């Protein structure tokens, strides 16, 4: 399924490991360059600004190709309009394949054609089905997951997560008011199922090529699960989709559940992240706690904003201070100390030990003082003096 050669994918992993070792101080810059020179790799761009520039250039190239095709096809008028987006999508798939064969990956040019092909699939299905939103989302999701599995394109995995969620939402909208009313619970169940499914796939993954895409989908499920039953999201969508108006002194149905969900889920995320040492879940929990506080303050302003910010800052300062005091001496697990891959005295000592063991060097050992004290003796004497 993957279009790239497995050897080059493995080389990319080794190059990334070499870059990590260089940042950690294990190897020198010359050694890092030597690794990159000896291992064939993809044509890619690590600089995000340069990659965006190539993406814009690729988008212009894609548009130029589609424009040239349109000049030829304009004579067919309405018939061409019905099929033009299918042709544009085919161009995107074809050029993406050609760029992949030339080892373009995460370069910017390939991003333009991969995303453009998926977008044109949506346009084409929309023209054919007269704008059926659920059908558009369904086929865009299929196109996006194909692009990810074929080209290991992370942005396509993100597009898949968004479109498959949109497909679920549009299906529920088609059920009418009942579907809109139970949408939060359906979204919550969907996010939970997809989370455990991606976690299972990650645990059983034999090849690491799909790891980051599955991790992205897994993290997306955490966010979707929390937002699905967040009180602010549910209340605002209820007013928007169902046309309900929450009058003063009233509240939405199952308000107690949504209140509890808004605060309990981020705390559960935090506990689970600390238990499993999951950094992504930890950041999601922090963002969730912050959004939960914003949710309540959006409807109930208990304190003036100046006082609330001051008290919040004091609480955060106290948490940070006592956390640092508690964790700064720990060497393993949850610790305040920098990662072992960063520069530190321990890393430098480890490097010295590695070099010493490689070349058979032994550390200098100071000899134990002899209990017998020898005399003076000058020049090359054996320690005897001039007198008894």
TrEMBL record:
Superkingdom: Bacteria
Coiled-coil spans in chain: none
Segments traversing the membrane: 48-73, 79-100, 154-172, 178-197, 209-234, 254-271, 280-301, 307-324
Keywords, ordered alphabetically: Membrane, Transmembrane, Transmembrane helix
UniProt name for this protein: DUF2157 domain-containing protein
Source organism per UniProt: Flavobacterium crocinum
Lineage, broadest ranks: Bacteria, Pseudomonadati, Bacteroidota, Flavobacteriia, Flavobacteriales
């Amino acid at each position: 399924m993957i279009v790239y050669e497995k050897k080059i994918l493995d080389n990319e992993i080794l190059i990334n490991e070499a870059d990590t070792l260089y940042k950690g101080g294990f190897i020198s810059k010359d050694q890092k360059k030597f690794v990159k020179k000896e291992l064939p790799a993809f044509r890619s761009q690590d600089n995000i600004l340069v990659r965006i520039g190539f993406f814009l250039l690729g988008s212009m190239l894609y548009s130029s190709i589609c424009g040239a095709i349109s000049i030829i096809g304009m004579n067919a008028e309405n018939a061409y309009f019905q099929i033009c987006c299918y042709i544009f999508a085919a161009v995107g798939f074809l050029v993406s394949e050609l760029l992949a064969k030339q080892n373009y990956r995460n370069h910017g040019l390939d991003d333009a054609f991969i995303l453009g092909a998926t977008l044109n699939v949506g346009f084409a299905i929309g023209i054919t089905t007269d704008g059926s939103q659920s059908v558009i989302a369904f086929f865009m999701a299929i196109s996006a997951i194909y692009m990810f599995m074929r080209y290991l394109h992370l942005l396509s995995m993100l597009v898949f997560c968004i479109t498959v969620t949109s497909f679920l939402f549009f299906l529920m909208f088609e059920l009418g008011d009942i579907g809109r009313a139970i949408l939060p619970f359906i979204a919550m169940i969907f996010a939970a199922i997809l989370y455990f499914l991606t976690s299972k796939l990650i645990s059983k993954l034999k090849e690491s090529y799909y790891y980051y895409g599955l991790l992205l989908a897994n993290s997306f499920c955490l966010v979707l699960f929390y937002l699905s039953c967040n009180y602010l999201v549910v209340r605002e969508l209820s007013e928007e989709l169902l046309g309900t108006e929450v009058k003063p002194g009233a509240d939405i149905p199952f308000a107690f559940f949504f209140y509890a969900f808004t605060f309990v889920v981020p705390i559960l995320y935090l506990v689970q992240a600390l238990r499993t040492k999951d950094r992504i879940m930890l950041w999601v929990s922090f963002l969730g706690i912050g959004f939960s506080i914003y949710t309540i303050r959006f409807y109930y302003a208990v304190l003036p904003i100046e006082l609330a910010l001051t008290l919040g800052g004091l609480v955060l300062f106290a948490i940070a201070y006592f956390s640092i005091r508690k964790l700064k001496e720990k060497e393993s697990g949850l610790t305040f100390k920098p990662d072992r891959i960063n520069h530190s005295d321990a890393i430098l000592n480890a490097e010295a030990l590695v070099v010493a063991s490689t070349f058979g060097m032994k550390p200098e050992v100071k000899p134990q003082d002899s209990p017998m004290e020898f005399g003076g003796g000058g020049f090359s004497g054996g320690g005897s003096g001039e007198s008894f």
